[in-house]
Amino acid sequence: MDDMQLLQAYARNGSEPAFAELVSRRIGLVYSAALRQVGDAHLAGEITQAVFILLAQKAPKISARTLLTGWLFRTTRFAALTQIRAAAKRQQLAKELQMQTDPSPAPPDPQWEQIAPWLDEALAALGEADRQAVLLRYFDRQSLAAVGAALGVSEDTARKRTTRALEKLRRHFSRRGVASTTDIIAGNLATQTVRAAPAILATTVTAVALTKGATASASTLTLVKGTLKSMNHTQYKMALAVGTAVLLAATTTLLAQHQNPFGGKGIPYNILDDASQFSESFDTNKLHVYFIVSSEKKNIHPADIHLTIQSTNKGVIPVHLGAKGQILDFPHDPDLRRENPPILTDQPKGSVNLGIWCYATMPEELVFPYRRLADIVAEANQGMARANEMIKTGYAGQFPLLKGKVKSLAFVFPASCAGKTVITIESASGRKEYHADHAGRLVFKLDDSLQAENPDVQLSQKPKWVVPASPEKG
Q1: What whole-number distance in Å separates Cα of residue 149 and Cα of residue 217?
Q2: Cys staple from 289: which of 16, 279, 335, 404, with CB 3.0 to 4.6 Å?
Q3: How many angstroms separate the CA atoms of 124 and 169, rounded?
Q4: What residues contact residue 365 under an 8 Å CB cut-off, 6+ apart?
């Protein structure tokens, strides 16, 4: 079985052997990345433990389309940064683990010691497509044909992506004072990046992760919680009002005839099923979209709202809500689609509304490639196309098709940024600065020529949130 099949076997059937096999395959990747970033074997072991605890906890929610190498890299990056930030406040930990390297590692290139400290930062700054290509090609040591198959592109496209990514890494290292070539970087990535973790670590990590952290040390649990917080805070969030952006336009089209939809006879199962599948179709490396259930009464918290599918054949089925009222793990069931039962709430008639929570997934660094923004806009436009296809196939004649294209992203910075430069881009045509308005907002329209050049984008500070702007004609 491949990695995702192992993870699904664990998520669906609780297969501990499947999870143990996954740990044994991937522990070297995680441990090596952690060790590069924190430079301490014990701390690297703790980060590795935290990453696999998170993997066990999140296994049921990880999409089958996810490339696990990328997920593990990003989560390790979050955990390492959390550990580094907390290191000054923590007591000195005993170094109990000794790094064990591959029995026959390639002799290190003289530049590896210079490259290694900056590698994970440089990889995190790549666009998602480029980073996945590098991870699959050099960390997983797959052929270009296999890389292309995993990414859904041709072998030639995979070759171009890896070549382009290597050049971006070279430029990143150059800005850090490390002169190198793409050939040297590629050689080091292929031979130095993934080493064997200490033998005892795999056994310990598997045992603790299978308990989902219940038997973890206090420091590891603190790291897990800090990593989750870091992951959530670096993905800037925004709850949007109905009709203000493309994603709401797409989803509320299906719900337009259901103002206060949970009153009276409730909302038909099929409409919420279609809408939920639509929101789940987005690439969460670029955009997150959730349906939000809320009450018009300010004193009613989402935890106080209960939704149930009233099925004649399958009984009463609860619909789970998250802390912000987001619909989680909506039950997609062909039998329920055939029946199309109502979904009801225990709240007073007409007091519960359905909205959208949407946010773009932004890089944690303040400097990143221009194309990262273009990827977010492209995902929004692909979402519009999926919404139109859903309307054509299931709601033809009931709802109008969505028109226009998303061409801009809306940034909202702290009010202290009002009138100040918040984005700077230095391209072949010169330096350009973008300023926030009186409220700290900026509507940033993408430029085709800059997408082709792909210069670095420099933010003055992290925005509160970033969302796709409303679609434009033409």
Answers
A1: 40
A2: 279
A3: 10
A4: 121, 124, 125
The per-residue pLDDT of the chain, averaged, comes to: 80
pLDDT band at 184 (very low <50, low <70, confident <90, very high): confident
**Token pair listed for 435:** 């300023």
pLDDT in tens, 254-308: 333 334 444 456 778 888 888 888 888 888 888 888 878 888 777 888 778 888 9
Residue type, 244: T
CA distances from 310 to 150, 257, 341, 345 (A): 41, 21, 6, 10
The answer for residues whose C-beta is within 8 angstroms of residue 142's C-beta and 6 or more apart is: 136, 150
Residue 344, SS3 per DSSP? strand
Q: Who wins on pLDDT, 157 or 84? A: 157
Q: What gap in Å lies between CA 26 and CA 15, rounded to an integer? A: 17
Query: 226 in helix, strand or coil?
Result: helix
Q: Which of 290, 259, 276, 398 is nearest to 330 (CA)?
A: 276
pLDDT of residue 117: 84
* Identity of the residue numbered 262: F
CA–CA distance, 385 with 267 (Å, rounded to integer): 25
Task: Quote the CA–CA distance of 144 and 190 in Å, as a whole number.
Answer: 13
